[in-house]
Specification:
41% of the residues lie in helices and 16% in strands. With 282 residues, it is of the alpha/beta class. The strands form three sheets. The protein has a six-stranded parallel β-sheet with strand order 1-11-8-7-5-6. A three-stranded parallel β-sheet has the order 3-2-4, sandwiched between helices. Strand 9 and strand 10 form a beta hairpin. Bound molecules: NADPH dihydro-nicotinamide-adenine-dinucleotide phosphate.
Length: 282
């Protein structure tokens, strides 16, 4: 068997095109502000890609780049200004922050109504309580891929590898909300391969290159690979050994070109929804 490749790049492009149409019909441009502190090189690429995609879809997007020596108080003051600015609908604080700034303090400072990353404890709590709110972009993107691929979620056994606040936990909540039977596995899980083999849907978000092997998965499983790992030779690989797992799985996302592009598309979707919630659609 050879797995169906789930083309996140194409699904994301279609979603961005639909969002651009909805934005064009609004009497205003949804405002997105990305706050970057310091010179983390990977962040630079991410921030530029977000800004480019947002502008291309008709958003009023800008990046606020603060120097590496910015204090926590200065960052919180910048966030407070954006919270109060009526043309700003979405605020994203790019992680990682310099060590001197507490990430939780920055996340908690963002107005939950403008928290388009969905990381604020209020939005995390809403998700856990099954209430509507802004949902983290990467897990939201995974749900979108599963929907586009026509994967039946109700009653499916889903295994989420990883329990981070930004991917694993919200991912598990979303799958649970869609009536999957969810297992969350992590670095203390006993018999990880055995847990994974029980999955109808396996979402890998661990940050370990090609950790999931062919003998970890059941035939026909849907594999979603969130991992982005740079190997010493420069190659980009996921958390799943793509070639060998694709020979067993029913469907699989590639890296790159799977979940990654969905994250930015869902950021735009969150920003549009935050804008409509604040300003209406007409
Ligand atoms: P974190 O490092 O925050 O979390 C990793 C999780 O994996 C932890 O829960 C950890 O367990 C678990 N884990 C680590 N090693 C093992 C192991 N050997 N066996 C079992 N579980 C393990 O990572 P993130 O959630 O932020 O990101 C995960 C991956 O997804 C990374 O590769 C990242 O680059 C990628 N990513 C991709 C995005 C995209 O747009 N496609 C967006 C965000 C992230 P424990 O809690 O016990 O320590």
């Amino acid at each position: 068997m050879t797995a169906r490749i789930l083309d996140g790049k194409a699904i994301a492009a279609a979603l961005r095109a639909r969002l651009a149409e909805r934005v064009a019909a609004l009497p205003y441009s949804p405002g997105l502000r990305v706050v970057r502190v310091g010179e983390d090189p990977a962040s630079g690429v991410y921030v530029r890609n977000k800004d480019k995609a947002a502008k291309a879809a008709g958003y009023d997007s800008a990046t606020i780049h603060l120097p590496a020596e910015t204090t926590e108080a200065e960052l919180l003051a910048t966030i407070a200004t954006l919270n109060a600015d009526p043309v700003v609908d979405g605020i994203l604080v790019q992680l990682p922050l310099p060590p001197r700034i507490r990430t939780e303090a920055a996340i908690a400072a963002v107005d939950p109504a403008k928290d388009v990353d969905g990381f604020h404890p209020l939005n995390a709590g809403r998700l856990a309580a099954g209430q509507p709110g802004l949902v983290p972009c990467t897990p939201r993107g995974v749900m979108h891929i599963l929907a586009e691929a026509g994967v039946v979620l109700r009653g499916a056994r889903a295994v989420v590898l990883g329990r981070s606040q930004i991917v694993g936990r919200p991912m598990a909540q979303l799958l649970l909300g869609a009536d999957c039977t969810v297992t969350i596995a992590h670095s203390r899980t006993r018999d990880l391969p055995g847990e994974c083999r029980r999955a109808d849907i396996l979402v890998a978000a661990v940050g370990r290159p090609e950790m999931v092997r062919a003998d970890w998965v059941a035939p026909g499983v849907v594999v979603i690979d969130v991992g982005i790992n740079r190997l010493p030779d420069g190659r980009l690989v996921g958390d799943v050994a793509f070639g060998e797992v694709a020979a067993v799985a029913g469907a699989i996302t590639p890296v790159p070109g799977g979940v990654g592009p969905m994250t930015i598309a869902c950021l735009l979707q969150n920003t549009l929804e935050a804008a409509i919630a604040r300003r209406g659609a007409a």
